[in-house]
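note to self: the first set is below, dont mix up w the second
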Amino acid sequence: GLRIHDYLYFQVLSPGDIRYIFTATPAKDFGGIFHTRYEQIHLVPAEPSEACGELSNGFFIQDQIALVERGGCSFLSKTRVVQEHGGRAVIISDNAVDNDSFYVEMIQDSTQRTADIPALFLLGRDGYMIRRSLEQHGLPWAIISIPVNVTSIPTFELLQPPWTFW
């Protein structure tokens, strides 16, 4: 199983109805690491959501973080598409929207390509709830803080999603 340092945490600051700390796992053997903590950065759902080619909203992903859905192409391909659009990182949510506990290990594909930006895996339920909230509010992106050091937050203040058990 995964240990606490195998996780990376981010907090949604807006919209308020999903103002929780979410758990993600970094890609195993590709992608970069966070050298900076972003206090407020946009989490922009990619269009199309699988991000296997040109993004129709690529302009909004530049200097921000993309929320991408699993499927259609490799994790590395998705990461490279976001990187080519100027994204600072990519969060890839599982395409199984009922997945609230199983983390997929994102590994290199067989192409010998690389990616420099951080790539994280997010549970399908979490990705779905973020996208659903944005749609309900008519918002093009969420505002997040990433990474969040959960060891410095008192347990009673950890605002985790009510649908996820830690």
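second set (the one i keep forgetting abt)
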Amino acid sequence: QGAVGLRCTWDIPPPASTQGKWVRLNVGGTVFLTTRQTLCREQKSFLCRLCQGEELQSDRDETGAYLIDRDPTYFGPILNFLRHGKLVLDKDMAEEGVLEEAEFYNIGPLIRIIKDRLEEKDYTVTQVPPKHVYRVLQCQEEELTQMVSTMSDGWRFEQLVNIGSSYNYGNEDQTEFLCVVSKELYNSPNGLSSEPSHKAKVRSALLWL
């Protein structure tokens, strides 16, 4: 529970000369023990080049473990992926962190899997139905044209209600209207919705549906 996984099938077997030889890695102060066979699952990776003796200028600690100055928190999923070709993450582990390490170690199959998962998440967020927000704007007849012409930021005219004359100047009545406008708000990745300001004067409450 709380873990998710995707499997990768390795296309190229590790070199026979690397099988059965154990390697110690000191990643950010945490020691990992594995085999050269595991580290060479992805032959273009930093880890494969390291254990094959290429000149990568990596120091060793007092036990002979290769010193790697990276976050050990995300190295566990990296190593397990090389062991069995499956991405397994704790529910609280950020995929972006594992992706950062996969890119550092140059593990191509794992990079592709995580990027696909992140793209799928982004697509799911965009598919959330939008919320409809309605505003009731009260204005005088002489303000109506200006108010409608200045609507922006995605607001759409819905209905106009004549509420009659509330007062007059001299012999001219000033007719007032209620103008109903609407807008769609989409959820952002952090669960919040943004609503730009509107130029018209709002005298009634904001109604959420």
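remember for set 2: The radius of gyration is 31 Å.
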